[in-house]
Amino acid sequence: MSKYKSIDLFAGIGGIRIGFDNAFGDSIETVFVSEWDENAQKTYKANFHDDFEIAGDITKINEKDIPAFDICLAGFPCQAFSLAGKKQGFDDDYKGTCRGTLFLDVARICEYHKPKVIFCENVKGLLIHDKGRTFKIITKTFEDLGYKVFYKVLNSKDFGVPQNRERIYVVAFRNDIAPDSFDFPEKTDDTKRLWDIKEEKPVPAKYYLSDVYLDTLKKHKARHEAKGNGFGYEIRDWSDIAGAVVCGGMGRERNLVIDKRQKELTPTTHIKGNINKEGIRKMTPREWARLQGFSDDYVLPVADVHLYKQFGNSVTVNVVESVAKRIREVLENGNEV
């Protein structure tokens, strides 16, 4: 029997779960998963073989139908929060202030089940969204439910992957087992560079930019530079680190690399013009997986366009694992009742 039961909400492709599985080993068991995106579900199912189905839209799931659990994993989407009743401010309960947001469902489920720990990851900007009011509502909601909240912004580049990715990590312990303080992990490894995640073999021609597209990117960047803006594509040196991988074209265009190993540059997809002669290419989905700390045995079963979105939306496994180890220490050091 596993010591701890966990649920994986807004599961994506399971990055948070992997981090906790790595940290807790056989002591943790996932008993419920929710993810509405069908392509993310396909990737999740290819890598986790649960004896239950992935639940879809969390807003339509009754909290009573979710099995009992000890740890809630919730990388809830970073959509803008709808703050109803602003004039009443924080006198309102969470049902009045967070109406229409998916965070409400985390609160609803945890209010019913009262897990020992709630773990959330989100964009750093959540701290300052709506002048800090949004984050204040989130922390107050957990506190009102009977939890002590700790949070910190951590950067993936400090945890063994060459990616500059700042995210906020929130850990809430139920009051009866909450420690006086919680020490988030310090830097473990900031030495990794892009050559550490580089594909071992020449990558297919389809990852190389066409000369027409590259010319478009150069002109776009020049226009912005003329206005004093820093927008536009970026070519990363293999001795450097990547910018944050995000879903959407800019995540790829701001993380281009030069790789001249592929000599067969006949286009295999419909492109305008020819493949560029400078060796400029996108990183591959496998390279993005490595940037996010996913091991090479992680299966990539869907089309590239979906994989880029999935890894851009995912978490850095290494960071989650480091935080999860600290959570496990608290649970196993006599604070648990």
Structural overview:
There is one protein chain. The protein is an alpha/beta fold and 337 residues long. The protein is 30% helix and 15% strand. The strands form 3 sheets. Strands 2-1-3-4-7-5 form a 6-stranded mixed beta sheet, sandwiched between helices.
Explain the layout of strands and helices.
Blueprint: E1 4-9, H1 15-24, E2 28-33, H2 38-47, E3 71-74, H3 94-97, H4 103-113, E4 117-123, H5 133-144, E5 147-155, E6 163-164, E7 166-174, H6 211-226, E8 242-243, H7 249-253, E9 257-258, E10 280-281, H8 285-291, H9 304-313, H10 317-332
Parallel strand pairs: 1-2, 1-3, 3-4, 6-8
Antiparallel strand pairs: 4-7, 5-7, 9-10
Helix pairs in contact: 1-10
Features:
Rossmann fold; two-stranded parallel ribbon; six-stranded mixed sheet; 337 residues; alpha/beta; single chain; 30% helix
Gist of the model:
Helix content is 30%, strand content 15%. It is an alpha/beta fold and 337 residues long.
Strand order of the largest sheet: 2-1-3-4-7-5
The fold-level CATH name of the largest domain is Rossmann fold
Low-confidence stretches: 79-100
**Mean pLDDT across residues:** 89
What is the SS-derived class? alpha/beta
- H/E element sequence: EHEHEHHEHEEEHEHEEHHH
Q: Level of helix content?
A: 25-40%
CATH class group of the largest domain = Alpha Beta
What do we call the CATH homologous superfamily of the largest domain?
Vaccinia Virus protein VP39
- Largest sheet: number of strands, sense, barrel closure: 6 strands, mixed
Under the CATH scheme, the architecture of the largest domain is: 3-Layer(aba) Sandwich
Based on CA inertia axes, which overall geometry fits?
elongated
- What share of residues are in beta strands? 5-15%
The DSSP helix count reads 10
- Would you count the extended β strands for me? 10
Termini distance? 18 Å
Rg calculated over all Cα atoms: 22 Å
Number of domains: 2
